[in-house]
Fold these 3 entries.
Entry 1:
Amino acid sequence: MADVWVGSELGFLKGIDLKKSSFTNHGVAAKVDRSHEICAMCWTDDNENQMLLGLANGIVKTFDVTTKEFIADHDQPIGQGKLKGLFKWDGAVVTCMESGLLQVWKNDDNPTDVKVGSHVSAVRQNPLCPSQVGTGGQKNDLKLWDLNRPEEPIFRAKNVPNDFLDLQVPIWVTELGFLPGQGSQSRIAVGTGYHQVRLYDTKTQRRPVLNFDFGESPISALAVTDNEKKDRILGNPRADYWARESVVIVGNTTGTMGSIDLRKGQLSGHYKGFAGGIRCISCLDKQQMVASCGLDKFLRIHHLHNRKLLYKSSQHTDSRGTAVLSDRSRKRTADEESSEDNDDIWDKMDVVTSTSKPKRLQKKIKSTKKKKDKIEEASAGS
């Protein structure tokens, strides 16, 4: 059984078993091309026996992880542009396209259409209140929708104040995630195309309560985690509560990934080892791990807290990773459980290290050594 599933831009679904350091490829179509790019993935229910795969051409496939077969296709036209959002709600499949058309498919013939604005880049479901959906995009600020009454958004974000030249700050929501512990009163973390990470508290105000700059490149991936590493403050009963729900992992288009403490509004540290833009991040909360994939075609697993690289796919994937889905509830077989406990596997996993020095550093060392030798020769000659 796989611990992590990775979707690629050429239509391959890769199941990776981290214990055995092995993987299995499953092609979503007989023909390999970018029209079959896996843009979104989600589990059909809490049992996590089946997953939905949303392809760039608008087709939604159902994959059974137990039989390792594709068991259903939904090929109705679902809008213009790439698929940006896919999830299950109340027995229905919900899709959202880049054009801004969100559809609730309770049957194939008569979907419910919702216009969420143009140039959509991010669509996320609130895991604690499944009827809530957050959307945003370029010139399309954060909106919160209730699918039970989708005529108007229940929350519209307000842009930050004008800059020092009294010009409007441009809007570009690239990623978002719901912080745990709030239910229908949502706190939402947002990444922008202008390298900001913003925190919205929908019960207090429309403008962000925190605006944090991360690097110099657009935010391309964001994941919220239940942080079990609690900061205990004596005499403050809410300290553990805030610590659990205020950590987000963000990545950008130049391969920088970091952990941000939203309580303090500061960067906790960086996750290293990337060689290309980051496309997707998924937190394995139970194991305290972070899975990520991107343009360099590698899957990486880091420890959530000390940020060490624990696993790197032994070879390139067939194409660039576009989506990561972790198996949070997988139950191991009796043979697996008797050999090692699940948590012990992660604790005993060797940290991936590199003994070779970077090429630039090697060249610099050689150049310095040559200069030193020349100076010594000149001194000896005189």
Entry 2:
Amino acid sequence: MSTQTFETSSTPEAETVSKTELSIFSEIADHNSTVSNVPEGCVEVNTYNLSDQYPDDLVSQETFLTLASIHSGVVVPTLFLICASTNTINMIVFYKHGLHERFNLCVFCLAFTDIINLMGGFLTYVQLPNSIIMKAIAPDSTTLAPVMQVVQDYNLLGLYGFNWASQLISAIVACERCYCVVRPLKSQTVLSTKTMAGIIFTVCTPAVAGYFVVMTRWKLVCTFDSITGSITFVPTASKFYLQNRQLVDILNGTVYGFALPGFCMTVVTVMTIITVMKLKQMAKWRETTSSAGALSAKEVGLTRMLVGTSALFISCATPAFTLFTAILFVPGLRLSGPYHYTFSVLIKVYEITSLINSSFNFFVYYKFGTKFRETVNKMCHCATTCKSKQTAPRQRDRSSTIRF
């Protein structure tokens, strides 16, 4: 599919947008049409190819389209499967361990937010097959496919806001572990499970709600190209965005683009460094004396596990933070700038690292968490045993039937 830019008529809602204005809409399929007149409900547009529009871009159009196909056809579906399965297991295991414990509650909420964020991604990428089905059924349709219509009507892409909730919970967990290591006795009385639940709810709710506001900026509009005779649905600025441009731009650019990811990464990094240094200091104390304020073996194990997840978080959050920081200092690094394809590729890298961060916590838990590993192994053993018990009677029945 060639990348095109659509110049809409001079209506308030119809701003000049790129077909790849948002990466989340970049996979929407075109609906071919041979109608000579503009269909009802569509806006007539003029198009031109972008292959020669970015001579200074480090990434060519052909390279971008190849990488986009691999990203959407191979990498993202694979990570979807890993993320869905691993976080489901995480939620089950920590629920079994008991949500009355502060640590279990935190990591359970982290897995839950990752699952909801995954749902937002799934709704985005399911639009491609949904569009293909719609094209096969009604190639000249000027209405959105069912899934796309529901996503737009209920602003379900706001579920991406749970990605920021996940980052905030990672920062909260890093702070909680650091406090437990630095003040092991006080942490048992000051930070109760109810207090931690209140903190998570208070911090994450505004982050999610604010992103729902950001995602109301886009509306899918039917456009008709009189030259090629094609009908396409492209994202354009909504009435809400035009009426509240300053608020949405502050939320999208300043809060979610720089401040929030920078804050979370800084907090996780600093708290993790302090935690590691304190653990090393406590290890030296154990070699010389017995300290009453020392952490238990269980607390040390949980802390090491959280250090592992913090390292994963930092490595996955760095590309996004670097990208959003570069945007502030490189004006051309935008979808409408001279480095259009470079920016688009970096966005896809950010999406991949975000999914990796949501998917691979399970492997860190399994490696460093003894109790977690035992519970998972026990669950797998029970599943295998139950399957064997169900299979055994069938085999005996077959044997008896043959003897008879």
Entry 3:
Amino acid sequence: MALKLGKVYGRHCSLLHGIVCLEGKKGKKRGAMVRFAGIDNELQKILDANMDEARARRRARDAFKHIQLNIDHILFKTPADGLKIKESYEVNSRGLEIFTKSWLPGTSSPRAVVCYCHGYGDTCTFYFEGIARKLASSGYAVFAMDYPGFGLSEGLHCYIPSFDRLVDDVMEHFSKVKEDPAICNLPSFLFGQSMGGAVTLKLHLKQPNAWNGAILVAPMCKIADDMLPPMLVKQFLIGVANVLPTKKLVPQKDLAEAAFRDSKKREMTSYNVIAYKDKPRLKTALEMLRTTQEIEQRLEEVSLPLLILHGGADIVTDPSVSKALYEKARSSDKKFKLYKDSYHSLLEGEPDEAIIQVFNDIVSWLDEHSKETNA
């Protein structure tokens, strides 16, 4: 039986890169004050806790995951039976405890390796769970991690003091993954969504010959102009960021309608209980802006096989820059598909038939490129 969303306090939602923030009717911040039907006060207290530190996020996810995986969303209808699924915490070279997860086919050898980079404020433990199951059921070994400060990984929630350092952390983990003798000879692909698209491109620019291709879904090559504050406000925030880098002061606009086209699926974002739900931190926002400006200037350096997918109605990340990436990249093997009526969250927020089409496009591209590489 599908779970029903309980009472939500406030109906106005602000959104950055697919992550919903709930606010009161007069615009007053209400944080994560979401009430779900059928849960006890103790669980609600865990969900209402301050999520700045990883311990609180891990506690919330552990207490709520059985509910998450039973919501009525197409992503969670792919069975996990027979798949080899593993979760672990690993301490990286900077001494940070990083959450990692993998999904492998259960009865056959994988055809290739897919390493996933998640979006802003997100985690690899909610929506991506369904995406990974689909890919693993199609024969792929899928690996993911939560960036430092995101999801279940150690660090101040959604704080990016250096985007380059974040990319180095991701590169360290995936390089270690690919050293496994069981998969080291398989073709390997990057898969980045939204901000994860920027992470993917930065990884490629740091390791130009390390990957056999990349899938970019609504990549953050440029933040849409409507998402940016006015120039005077931006200059003020840059100055304040030098003194108060972790403060949650960056204004954001109401873009929930633009990210999730399907209204029922839009409501389900509330179940992503460890997603970041506050205003962006100053340093985080500036690092993201700086990174997109750098990527936009380096599109011609991109040289690996590409599958670029973007919604034509996306006003969170700019689809015109995805088209520019397709046109300017040096890659001889590249494909760009624009889904005319789709919004930002192509795999989470569209009608079921649209999500199935995007999945089919991704798996077909992986099948083709895995065959070519193995041959």
